[in-house]
Every structure is written in structure tokens, then in C-alpha cells.
Amino acid sequence: MLNDKIKLDIENLAKSTRVASLGIAKASSEEKNNILSKIVLGLDLSRELILEANKEDIASIQGKDLTEAFIERMTLDEKKIEQMRQNIKDVILLDDPVGKREILDRRPNGLKVFKQSIPLGVIAIVYESRPNVTSDAAVLCIKSGNATILRGGSECFRTNILIVDIIKRAIDECGFDPNCINMIPLTDREALKFILTLDDYIDLVIPRGGESLIRFISNFSRIPVIKHYKGVCHVYIDEFADQKKAYEISLNSKIQRPGVCNSMETLLIHRKVVKSMLPGLLELFDKNNVKIHSDEEVLGIAGNQKIVKVAKNDWSNEYLSLEMNLKIVEDIDEAICHIEEYGSLHTESIVTENKEKSEHFINSVNSSAIMHNASTRFNDGNELGLGAEIGISTTKLHAFGPMGLNELTTKKFVVLGEGQIKQNA
């Protein structure tokens, strides 16, 4: 249990973030971009310190039972720091989402009714192993006029603290309250439970991490939650698929970076192309050390290649490694039904040269992103032109898919009149 002093400290931190949010919400595009430019410079000047802090974090987890994918996500190098800087530069070039006004109606009495985009307020972002999220989240919140409270995992505590300090200095140097970004200095679940009760100060919670973290937050939060849930992503090879595209898309979706949420976890293949395509696919995956879970029919076709007998719960598993499921389906509708039953509303791809089939798939499957003849790896804020992203929402309200700047705003009504008054009805 948390003692009263710790609770008071956390509540005061949330209060200070709320106060700071009022200032950053009014900042001009130029002012916000100046802050971001200073953060880019700060990351560059502090490269060695960041890498050293990250090495200490990596050393502190030695001996713990953590997957390779987890360690890969938390490890920084020169390339990843440069990508963090480039993400910020990309956000600087994006249009400011705040203050955009669209007309809805011109009423018979002369009133003009608009909707105008505004910041959400204070966003708490809870995440696990990726220290680059610290930078991406703070930058997107600043550009969209929001303040943010970060709560990273214990594994990257030193790295996160240092990145937050760089960002706070940049905000302060530009004349704004550095409490626009704050980091909870505690990583235990009791502290997180308490944060999730502070609905007077926090407007939205965005969790990024494993299934257990997201379920924990959803169960305990009094604040609205946008879930960035697991990615059980599918590729469906249709009977009208081009073989070269099918091979390349399937392989890229699985092995390009298997430890991320938009990598393929299940490959579905139409029965009519099993004879012509499946042996080649199995050989391709085998050469790339991909472990396949499938049924008796595929085991028979595989011959000497190692195939694991699939279990019922494997179909909904997010492996995040060089491991996947494979299923033969009778037609496109069986593929769609399988996705509806086992998918996580993340990313699905159809490989086909048939326009009618592709449109049927696109219109039938309601995951956050549907690809046609493209890898599932493209469901990403950078790849879709959003700049850096907070994450990929699998919650349909209020944002669905990659959450960029526009998804970090809401809209207020603006009504312009010339003296109109309401008459008694």
C-alpha cells in the first residue's frame, strides 16, 4: 500500500501537470515547434549520456526472465536515437492540429455553427520497455497542445528519466511551464492504481504494453482509456494472388521485425493455391528460422520441415518472435470469419489481384488497418504519414489505428451570431 506522503506527491504532480496544460494549450504553432527544435538539439548533445544510461538499464535486467523481443525494444543505439530525432523533425513539419475550424451548418436564423479542434488536456501514457516512446509521446502531446504524465517501466527507468529531463529543459528554455511533461518516479502497480483514480486532473489514459498491463489499467481506471491492445495480425493469400507478392508480403510481415505489434502472427491461404504456393512458403519460412504452428493437413504437406501441431489458443496468440500460425481456408469468407473470431482489431492484409475480392475483404473486416497487396508492417504512424505516433489504438472510440497529432485532439462547437436570441418555444 502507498503511504499518504507518496499519494500526496503523486497528486501534486498531477495538479502541476493540469496547471501547465492550460499554458501549452494556448501556445502558437511557432512556439511549439521551437520547443521541438530544442528537444532535437538536446537529444543530439546528450547522445553519450543517453546511451550510457541505457547500458545501465540493460545491465540491471541481466538474469531476469525476459524475451529477446522485450530486450530489443528497450535497447537504444545511435540509429534509434537518430530515429527519435528524425521523428521530431517530421512532427515539426506537420500541420498544427489545434484550432482547425470546419463549418457544420448555417441556421435559418443566421447562426453559423462550426466545430474547432482543441487539445484533449492531460494525457497519462503508461508503457513498458520502449524508451523511444518517452520522446515520441511527449513530442506529439506538445505539438497537439497537450500536457502529459509518463509512467514507463522499471527496466528503462534511468533512460526515461534522462530523456524527460532533456524535454523539460527545452520547454523551460522556451518560456513554458516544464510541468507540461512529468514522469511518475515510481514503477510499482500500487502507484499506478492511484494514478488511475485522479480523474480530476487527467483526461485520458493511453496504455502501451503487454496484454496484462492493458487489462490491469482497464480494470482499475476511473479515467477513459484508449487501448493499444495486442496485435494478432493476419495475412490472407487469396486464390487470385500473385505468387511473388504473396511470398514477399508474407515473409516481410513476419520477419522484418517480429517483435512488434504489426508483425503477422497467422497466415491464411486459400485451398486452391495450396499446391502451387504452400511448399514454397514453407521452405521460405524454414530458411528464415520461423517456427510454424498448423494442423495435420499442413504437417503432411511439410514433409521433413518442422511444424508444431497447433492448439486452439494458438490462433489468438501474439508471438512477437519468429513463430506463427498457418491455416488453409476454403474461401475468402472462411478467412474473414477466422479473423473475426481470433483477431485483435489491429492489422490484416489480403494478397490478391482480384478487385472484387479485395473490396469484399476491405469492407468486411473492421480492424484498424486493412492492407491490399502490402505488408502488415505498414500500419505505423511514420509509414502512413502521421509522423511519430503514440501507438496503434484497437479501441474504436475515439481513435482507431495509429494515433498521431489529429487523434490527440477533440472538437468543441463554435457558434457565430449577430445578436440572435432564443425565442420562447
Fold and architecture overview:
- The protein has 2 domains: 4-228 and 390-415, Aldehyde Dehydrogenase, Chain A, domain 1; 233-378, Aldehyde Dehydrogenase, Chain A, domain 2 (3-Layer(aba) Sandwich), CATH 3.40.309.
- The protein has 425 residues and is an alpha/beta fold.
- The N and C termini lie far apart (57 Å).
- The longest helix has 21 residues, at 4-24.
- It contains 14 helices and 16 strands.
- It has helices at 4-24, 29-45, 47-60, 68-74, 78-93, 132-143, 157-173, 189-195, 211-220, 243-255, 274-287, 296-302, 332-342, 355-364; strands at residues 101-106, 112-119, 122-127, 147-151, 181-183, 204-208, 233-237, 264-270, 291-294, 307-309, 323-329, 347-351, 369-372, 392-393, 401-402, 409-416.
- The strands form 4 sheets. The protein has a 7-stranded parallel sheet, sandwiched between helices. A 4-stranded parallel sheet has the order 5-4-3-6, sandwiched between helices. Strands 1-2-16 form a 3-stranded antiparallel sheet, with no helix packed on it.
- Strand 7 (233-237), helix 10 and strand 8 (264-270) form a beta-alpha-beta unit.
- The mean pLDDT is 94.
Summarize the structure.
The chain is an alpha/beta fold and 425 residues long. The chain has helices at residues 4-24, 29-45, 47-60, 68-74, 78-93, 132-143, 157-173, 189-195, 211-220, 243-255, 274-287, 296-302, 332-342, 355-364, and strands spanning 101-106, 112-119, 122-127, 147-151, 181-183, 204-208, 233-237, 264-270, 291-294, 307-309, 323-329, 347-351, 369-372, 392-393, 401-402, 409-416.
